[in-house]
From TrEMBL:
Its cofactor is Mg(2+). This is Small RNA 2'-O-methyltransferase. NCBIfam families: bacter_Hen1. Residues 2-237 form the Hen1 N-terminal domain. It catalyses: small RNA 3'-end nucleotide + S-adenosyl-L-methionine = small RNA 3'-end 2'-O-methylnucleotide + S-adenosyl-L-homocysteine + H(+). Belongs to the methyltransferase superfamily. HEN1 family.
Length: 470
């Protein structure tokens, strides 16, 4: 909860771009973020951010823990950690950037602020909270939360009921929380890559370079991955003209000398494989056929080289979910003009889909009855006839490598079939021959020498008609 007593206190609504008279909900990767105001009057205004985590969706999105049950039974829905930081950055993005279109002068003002975090995870106790927040101008009160108030003998948990008070710009306060909540948590829910360095330095601009604990912050925020930590510290050193060797000597410790071998989730590998193929093809106008809730669309819209993206799905609810995930209603106009979402069946001819550079059917064909595949084939390869078609589908032979999958069961309850590599190759080569395409095959995921990869991918490229031909 974020509270101010700057009069009129209700100006907090302008700063946060959230009206005090309304409760609002925003879809985020982990579930739904709710913003509401327990109190809003001239003397005091409090804005609350409540993150309702969907544990199952979190696991499907690639979050992992040390053991299978731990993916579903953990503290993630209840603590102010990396999930809340991501929601904070998404819901209050304009406020964090110091923008206030309605009252621009407010964003630059120092105002009295109080931040209450009832369940702040921190194994190192209140001392670390003070070391991180006090240099930034906060006064810290952090009390351990008992494991069970009814049984005081059990001792305290690793969570702190924390209140921060200070006088500063709201944008600065939000950036402090965005960076330091994951640092204290020490358990990021997503894979840390090079882009995290940019996010850290962007959010920490103006304060991180001068922070006495900048090395510790960088190490924890970047999950102790030495190459990324080194890059961050070098760039911070450049920001304040300090030699990187003069920074905290923690870099001399054997932190992590290589990126840990943590496998990228198969869903992520699949999307990256498709994106890689589209780049190789030089595609600019792309169809995502069977787009579902927009997982691939989010990656496509981020690629500035794509000038037109069309998402098609037979399910109206899936189209609505994709629109929410993409935040179409909040998307910049120039960005919004690049993407279209439509409800349509892939087994019916739609002439408006003709002429595109590429069409993607990512994990789609196995959801279609085999008797309806000829109709889908005609609609895509004969009527729409894009320059290239990318198709992915499960490799049923690899199912024996999934410990959680019972013998004979398909990977999804809606799958109508799952093909072997030979079956997929036979279907693909026949489709290519019938419609004037060439086809090549690629593995997605680890290519097991005995049973092949978990996902198989085919790239169809339309043959050029010879000069003087039809």
């Amino acid at each position: 909860m974020l509270t101010t007593t700057a009069e009129p206190a209700t100006d907090l609504g302008y700063l946060l771009h959230k009206h005090p008279d309304r409760a609002q909900a925003f879809p985020v990767a982990a579930g739904t973020a709710h913003v509401f105001y327990p109190r809003a009057d001239q003397e005091e205004c409090t804005a609350a951010l409540l993150l309702d985590v969907d544990p199952v969706a979190l696991v499907k999105g690639g979050a992992t823990t040390g053991f299978t049950l731990g993916q579903y039974v953990n503290d993630r829905p209840y603590v102010a950690g990396s999930l809340l930081a991501v929601a904070l950055g998404s819901v209050f993005s304009s406020a964090m950037k110091g923008r206030c279109a309605a009252r621009p002068e407010l964003a630059a003002r120092l105002i009295p602020l109080s931040v209450r975090i009832p369940t702040l995870p921190c194994r190192d106790g209140r001392e670390l909270v003070e070391r991180l927040f006090t240099p930034l101008g906060w006064r810290v009160v952090a009390d351990p939360v008992p494991l069970d108030p009814q049984f005081p003998g059990w001792g305290d948990s690793r969570y702190l009921d924390t209140t921060l008070t200070g006088e500063m710009r709201l944008a600065d306060a939000l950036s402090h929380l965005y960076v330091l909540l994951p640092v204290l948590d020490g358990s990021k829910h997503y894979w840390v890559g090079q882009d995290e360095v940019d996010k850290l330095l962007r959010a920490g601009a103006g304060w991180l370079a001068a922070h006495p604990e900048r090395t510790l912050i960088s190490r924890r925020y970047l999950a102790h991955q030495r190459p990324y930590v080194r890059t961050a510290l070098e760039r911070l050193a450049d920001a304040d003209d300090t030699d990187v060797a003069e920074l905290d000597d923690a870099l001399a410790e054997p932190v992590v000398t290589a990126v840990p071998e943590r496998p990228e989730p198969l869903a992520v590998q699949r999307r990256h494989s498709v994106l890689g193929v589209l780049k190789e093809l030089g595609a600019r106008r792309v169809l995502d056929l069977g787009c579902g809730n927009g997982a691939l669309l989010r990656e496509l819209i981020a690629d500035r080289e794509l000038t037109e993206i069309v998402g098609i799905d037979v399910s109206a609810s899936a189209i609505e979910a994709a629109a929410r995930a993409l935040q179409l209603d909040r998307m910049a106009e120039r960005q919004r003009e690049r993407i279209t979402l439509r409800q349509s069946a892939l087994t019916y001819t739609d002439q408006t889909l003709a002429g595109y550079d590429a069409a993607v059917l990512m994990e789609v064909i196995e959801h279609v009855d085999e008797s309806r595949l000829p109709a889908l084939e005609h609609a895509v390869f004969a009527a729409a006839r894009p320059a290239a078609v990318v198709v992915t589908t499960p490799n049923v032979e690899h199912n024996v490598r999934f410990d959680s999958l019972e013998a004979g069961r398909m990977r999804h309850s809606d799958h109508r079939f799952e093909w072997t590599r030979a079956q997929f190759r036979e279907w693909s080569e026949a489709v290519a021959a019938r419609h004037g395409y060439t086809v090549g095959f690629r593995p997605v995921g680890p290519d097991d020498p005995d049973v092949g990869p978990p996902t198989q991918l085919a790239v169809f490229e339309r043959e050029q008609a010879p000069e003087g031909g039809r």
